[in-house]
Specification:
The complex is a heterodimer. Chain A has helices at 2-17, 57-60, 64-69, 92-99, 118-127, 138-146, 181-190, 195-210, 213-221, 224-235, 256-278, 349-361, 365-371; strands at 33-39, 49-51, 73-74, 85-87, 103-110, 150-153, 168-171, 242-247, 285-291, 311-316, 347-348. Chain A is of the alpha/beta class. Chain B has helices spanning 2-18, 26-30, 34-42, 57-95, 98-111, 119-136, 140-152, 160-165, 168-174, 182-190, 193-198, 221-230, 240-249, 290-301, 304-318, 325-337, 342-351, 366-377, 384-394, 417-431, 441-449, 455-462, 467-476, 478-481, and strands spanning 253-255, 266-268, 278-280, 283-285. Classes of the chains: A alpha/beta, B mainly alpha. At the A-B interface, helix 5, helix 7 and helix 8 of A face helix 20, helix 22 and helix 23 of B.
Chain lengths: 385, 483
């Protein structure tokens, strides 16, 4: 009850003042924190954690690869296993994290979901059960077992946090009346055969653009960067153990270069804002960033990519065993691809998520089995001392 | 195969165009009996169902009278108090400290609650009932017909009394006469307190009666709107002379005064009725008290101009702004042949192939849009405040049209850029609600459109990157925005 009221007040002050508040997280070691960031829409891993060592990248992606090839941010190789990956040019902060050993990318992962529907794949990734239960998320099961407090930065509880209502709160900037940018983009596509609706939509968007500063601020309140910042503030409270953020806009069927440049930059800035807000608690935090599936290895006819299979996963945090890349690389030769079109999955998300969460929150094997029944838990050390 | 596809298509048209959108089980239930599904609704008895425990025009008029009486008494009391209190204060200033004076101050504020205006509550409860019934009804074609005539005989919730009274007209006068003869519908409306008060006929007094004074006499408002909006139409061939004559013909048509009149509802004041013969559209009406006005209304209800005017409006509202001449003629002929038997007129509408053109014909009004959304989503615990807020946000609050002409039925009045942006924002908010988080978009598409959604829309919607966005896009698809 009290906690709820506190959250309400906190949320209200976030909306009104939009500045860091209650610097009560100084120094003292709090219980280990988790941030689960879900990228909805299927992130193109080959455009994010780029295998520069693959000679076929240019032939698979004649326009997409050259668009970033010369600006890529190389990732130092720890062993010869890791060949030569590089991050997308927009991931400036994440690149720095990698160099500081605070970022751990995992390549060629999937949730185990065999098909290519966003919704079903997201259900898999959020529920982590062999047959997804929309009322039981893996994070919810974890916080219920460990009696943790969680908050979803969302308008309603995502599947990941469902099933433990006594623990999960949601928070979102109140009365955010404007639809999100991705919705407008999708609508432009939806209206391509309806000239009148398209005209109206464009008129409406122009009108809103003219409305100026106040509206803009209102919009930015809902942007990923400000949500991440709020998330960091909420999580800085000693009573808060866990938060979930989501970012959509990854379904890049066309003109992917520009869209991913914007999206990845948003993700990068948002995660940096989260880190900044967490302050010294950063060393005490595990960040998990994943997407429901990957995209086709070949670019399609509209300078984009279509729904695929394996993608990449990021683990991050002040003490994560970063600066290396995990996951076995399946190769990009046609015969190495899943159904001759997608990057093949060599491990599952949950193998890695379970390992890091087990070590971070001191879960027993039994508890891990309950939370991630399908995981083949990775046995390496995920954190530095 | 071809045939069954066509019939499926008709089920979508039946629910989207004729009715107010499909509920989850309807498309399957209708199957290939789209016309029959509509025709059967015409036979439903009652055509629409209301919660009968709610306030009626009579109870609202009584409550209003009590409210104004108690408010008057209260204000008088307040005025009376002011003088002695002021005097007492002057005395006490010398003898009593401020501390002692305080309690009587606070006591005064406790008493000084003005009686509460009851009409907002009436308005909310009555409109909530109609919206809920509409969203949950199996006879949504009937509700659409009711909405059509409710808007045709629009009354606005403006001012205290009309706020409570406006929603009673469709319940009490229109619904019982929905598929009867138009002259009976017109009469019921013109004798209902809401219409009489809204268009000021309740105080219209025959100019040559003894009640007529300098400031009290004939009011033409209702008579003019009957001719212009309800029957003949502005080009229907009447003159100012006809307006005055009809106004005189319905002088003395009024509403009971609680406490004064024993009878409730409509009251005929014989003494205020203008004596003498009336002439309307070149026809003479000998003095017959109440029957004189009734006969005048009956004749204009059955006038060919009325048949054409209302038939055109029906076709425009239900089918297309560019009403096909052939269809209008068909309805008009049916109207004249049956003396304005509305059931026959709607049968004619349902049975004519021009009503079933495949191309979607019209952008939904906010009302149609909101209702069809809630019908499609079939929420278990319907929060009717949400629905009311939606209509408010999207610009079509029940009974808040700003003129007796009602809300426009023309798509150009609703399809502006900011209106679309409002729908985009509203749909996004709806889709973000927890109760829709598990919506299965494929099932929703099938239940709403069967297989008639365009491939393009289907692909964009089903390839959306989240359930939430898929629902947003479905609600904003060209197919869902139009009918």
């Amino acid at each position: 009850m009290l906690r709820r009221d506190f959250l309400k007040a906190l949320a209200a002050s976030l909306v009104v003042y939009q500045q860091p508040l209650l610097a009560m997280n100084s120094g003292e070691k709090q219980s280990p924190k988790v941030v689960w960031v879900m990228l909805r829409g299927a992130l193109d891993a080959l455009h994010t954690v780029v295998p520069t060592f693959e000679p076929s990248m240019k032939t698979h992606r004649p326009t997409l690869y050259p668009s970033i090839e010369h600006k890529l941010l190389p990732l130092a190789q720890v062993s010869s296993m890791q060949q030569g990956y590089a991050l997308h040019p927009a991931l400036v902060n994440l690149h720095q994290w990698y160099q500081q050993k605070q970022l751990l990318p995992v390549v060629a992962v999937s949730s185990g979901y065999p098909k290519r529907s966003h919704f079903e794949a997201q259900d898999y990734l959020e529920s982590a059960l062999p047959v997804p239960d929309l009322d039981s998320g893996w994070l919810a099961r974890a916080i219920a077992l460990k009696n943790k407090q969680a908050i979803a930065i969302a308008q309603s509880t995502p599947i990941s946090l469902r099933g433990s209502n006594q623990h999960a709160n949601t928070w979102y900037p109140s009365r955010l009346p404007d639809a999100e940018q991705q919705t407008y983009q999708a609508l432009q596509q939806l209206y391509q055969d309806s000239p009148q609706l398209l005209t109206r939509l464009e008129e409406g968007l122009n009108m809103e653009a003219l409305l100026g500063e106040q509206n803009l601020q209102k919009k930015q309140q809902g942007s990923f960067v400000s949500l991440s910042k709020s998330c960091g503030q909420l999580l800085s409270q000693p009573t808060m153990d866990c938060a979930m953020l989501t970012l959509g806009g990854w379904d890049t069927h066309k003109n992917q270069t520009g869209q991913l440049q914007r999206q990845l930059s948003l993700l990068d800035k948002g995660l940096q804002a989260l880190k900044t807000e967490l302050g010294e608690q950063w060393d005490n935090t595990l960040v998990i960033v994943a997407t429901e599936f990957g995209r086709t290895v070949k670019e399609n006819g509209t300078r984009g990519t279509d729904h695929g299979t394996a993608s990449a996963l990021f683990l991050a945090g002040g003490k994560i065993q970063g600066g290396q890349i995990l996951g076995k690389w399946p190769g990009l030769q046609v015969e190495q691809l899943h159904q001759q079109r997608d990057l093949k999955a060599t491990s599952h998300h949950f193998d890695w998520i379970a390992a890091s969460l087990q070590q971070h929150w001191q879960l027993t094997d039994q508890q891990v089995q309950h939370i991630f029944p399908t995981a083949k838990v990775y046995q390496g050390k995920m954190f530095r001392a | 195969m071809q045939g069954s596809k066509k019939e499926f298509f008709n089920a979508t048209i039946a629910t989207q165009r004729f009715a107010l959108g499909a509920r989850p089980d309807e498309i399957k239930k209708i199957n290939d009996n789209a016309q029959q599904w509509l025709l059967t609704q015409l036979d439903a008895s009652p055509t629409v169902t209301f919660d009968r425990s709610l306030a009626t025009a009579n109870s609202i008029l009584i409550a209003h009278s009590e409210f104004t009486k108690s408010r008057k008494a209260f204000r008088k009391q307040q005025a009376d108090k002011t003088i002695p209190t002021a005097m007492a204060e002057m005395d006490s200033a010398n003898q009593m400290s401020e501390m002692q004076a305080m309690p009587s101050e606070s006591k005064k504020t406790e008493e000084s609650k003005e009686p509460k205006n009851p009409h907002n509550d009436f308005y909310k409860a009555l409109t909530a009932d109609a919206l809920k019934q509409t969203i949950e009804s199996e006879n949504s074609f009937n509700w659409r017909c009711l909405a059509f005539f409710s808007n045709h005989f629009s009354v606005s919730a403006q001012g205290q009394l009309m706020t409570g009274l406006a929603p009673t007209l469709e319940r009490e006068a229109i619904a019982p006469n929905l598929y009867g003869h138009f002259d009976q519908l017109l009469l019921a409306v013109c004798q209902h307190p809401a219409m009489l008060i809204y268009l000021n006929n309740e105080n219209s007094i025959g100019p040559s009666t003894r009640f007529a004074k300098k400031n009290r006499g004939l009011n033409e408002n209702l008579a003019r709107e009957i001719l212009e909006l309800h029957t003949l139409g502005v080009d229907g061939g009447y003159q100012q002379h006809d307006v005055t004559e009809l106004a005189k013909g319905i002088t003395g048509w009024s509403v009971f005064k609680p406490g004064k009149d024993k009878q409730q509802g409509f009251i005929y004041h014989k003494g205020k009725h203008e004596p003498g013969t009336r002439t309307l559209l070149d026809k003479s009406y000998p003095p017959q008290d109440l029957a004189q006005g009734k006969q005048m209304l009956k004749d204009i209800a059955n006038h060919p101009s009325t048949a054409r005017f209302v038939s055109t409006k029906i076709v425009q509202s239900f089918i297309s702004d560019q009403a096909p001449e052939e269809l209008v003629n068909h309805l008009t002929t049916q109207w004249i042949k049956t003396n304005g038997h509305l059931k026959s007129v709607f049968q004619a509408l349902i049975n004519h192939p021009l009503s079933w053109q495949k191309q979607q014909q019209k952008y939904k009004t906010p009302y149609e849009y909101v209702i069809s959304t809630y019908r499609a989503l079939a929420v278990k615990k319907l929060n009717i405040r949400q629905v009311q807020n939606a209509l408010n946000t999207l610009g079509q609050r029940p009974f808040k049209a700003d003129s007796p002409a009602g809300y426009s039925d023309q798509q150009q009045d609703w399809d502006g850029a900011s209106a679309l942006m409002a729908r985009v924002n509203w749909a996004s908010q709806i889709a973000a609600k927890k109760q829709f988080a598990k919506t299965n978009i494929n099932i929703l598409i099938e239940n709403t459109f069967s297989n008639t959604l365009s491939t393009h829309s289907y692909q964009v919607i089903t390839r959306a990157e989240s359930r939430q966005q898929a629902l947003t896009l479905l609600l904003l698809s060209p197919e869902f925005l139009t009918r």
